[in-house]
Amino acid sequence: MAENDWWKKSVVYQVYPRSYQDSNGDGIGDLPGLTSRLPYIKDLGADVIWLNPIYKSPDKDNGYDISDYRNIQPAYGTMDDFDNLLQEAHVLGLKIMMDLVVNHTSDQNKWFQESKKSKDNRYRDYYVWRDPVDGHAPNNWGSYFNGSTWKFDETTGQYYLHLFAEGQPDLNWENPQVRDEVWNVMKFWLDKGVDGFRMDVINLISKPTGLPDGQKAPDGKYADVGKVVADGPRLNEFLQEMNQKVLSKYDVMTVGEMPDSTPDDAIKYTGLDSHELNMVFQFDHVGLAGNDDPRLGKWSDKKVNLVELKQSLSKWETELNGKGWNSLYWNNHDQPRTVSKFGNDDPKYRDKAAKMLGTTLHMMQGTPYVYEGEELGMTNVHYKKLSQYEDLESLNAYREFVDDEKIIDKDSMLKYLSARSRDNARTPMQWDNNKNAGFTSGKPWFELNPNYTEINARNQIENQSSVFAYYKKLIELRHNSDLIIYGDYELLDPEDEEVFTYKRRYNDETLLVISNFTDKELTRDYNQSAGKLLIGNYDDDRNMELRPYESKVYLFK
Ligand code: GLC
Ligand code: CA
């Protein structure tokens, strides 16, 4: 084993700072607020905190549109607050991983402000500008956030490229100056002592030569841009340059967010000899249960099929084994809440289902990520009205599908938003059952989930049978087991539609993980009685019997 592979043994806790803890009553979470909560994260047992973007930003996409890479968003605090956070975290033995958003900037970034002034501005080539073709956009690419990826700019009569929102113009990575700027930004933060980067949509930075049209989605107006742009021709080269010029000089952890990547791609980026990244976030399992109508993509309220879920997660486990490294996650700030999507958020079952999902993921090979509130079993918020939503992806999709193209009626779209909107993850953290769940003394920037009176940290911290206590135990088990960290993975009974069972093997030890994904009483015989129960989400072990959402882990020596 490589010596500096601490990131393989770590558990990461993701903080969405806007919704974590407000310290000054303006209703917005901030850095001093987060600093005050570090002991909670330490208590959970996490090793690393991934911080969503905290840089200066007009917040069109909640910080994923950066206008100044070297300054802190004023609502979150000052650079002193950041330095203090980093120092306090390090004192507690917690590492901090920053979000690096360099596929695009904000249109308010100085580089773009200059770039759009004239065709001969020295920053012109920092972005992707093209002439109109027959009076239209240069190609048929459709943005991740709906509409074309091209925006016409009157001043110079050219279009600029934006894979995401109009306010998020794509950087031109073909330009070596752009790459140098990025390396310098990275060094700025690494020299402060940050411990790594989560790299936003990093597999989209190398655009295909000539920017060719893509294949149009069935009946759609535009081509799915991910299919054309992901894993482009110079991606490996760019990542190797990044590694050589920056990453290799520091002992840090890196994870690349990679929509549309395959295990083969991931092996290229995270392979032992590739000198690129440590691990990737793949999207296969979170992309399951999309709409039958391909135009609607992720917008659906279908339940995930367990056979497909097992196949998807197992493919990554087996294909990367010994060749690359997995990241393990159920949710993040872009996904609905774990227990609502993959389990059951009915009050009768949610506690068991949350623990069952935690077990299933944390016993796999890879680095687990816990998204704030997941350790409490926080659920989707289930808003009823469009006006309650805030996220531009949700609002744009509603406008396009309901108002403009009339593909779908209002009530169905509201159901889909309730099941899949990113806003489900962004409601404030539920600390206690005081006003606003202890998140703020002011007016929260975003409506809270009313179930905070029942689901909150204070209720759970002291309670030995809480979801929090259970996650703590899962993390502790991993910290003390090479079997859990390095063991080989084998899926059992892939066709079982109700139970997810797998084994891990390392030297002479075997781990058996059995999870009932249904609300039914079932029986499964895996010779459980010969093993030692390491953890389970019911008080007693009934051997072959599986109660609703029951999950158990056995060790065989
Ligand atoms: C990533 C982020 C998401 C953001 C997008 C554009 O997918 O996780 O929140 O909207 O990139 O930056
Ligand atoms: Ca604040």
From TrEMBL:
CDD domains hit by this protein: AmyAc_SI_OligoGlu_DGase (cd11333)
Pfam families per UniProt: Alpha-amylase (PF00128)
GO cellular component: cytoplasm
Gene3D superfamilies registered for this protein in UniProt: Glycosidases, Golgi alpha-mannosidase II, Oligo-1,6-glucosidase, Domain 2
Residue stretches making up the Glycosyl hydrolase family 13 catalytic domain: 14-426
Keywords: Cytoplasm, Glycosidase, Hydrolase
Localization of this protein: Cytoplasm
NCBIfam families: PRK10933.1
Protein name, UniProt field: Trehalose-6-phosphate hydrolase
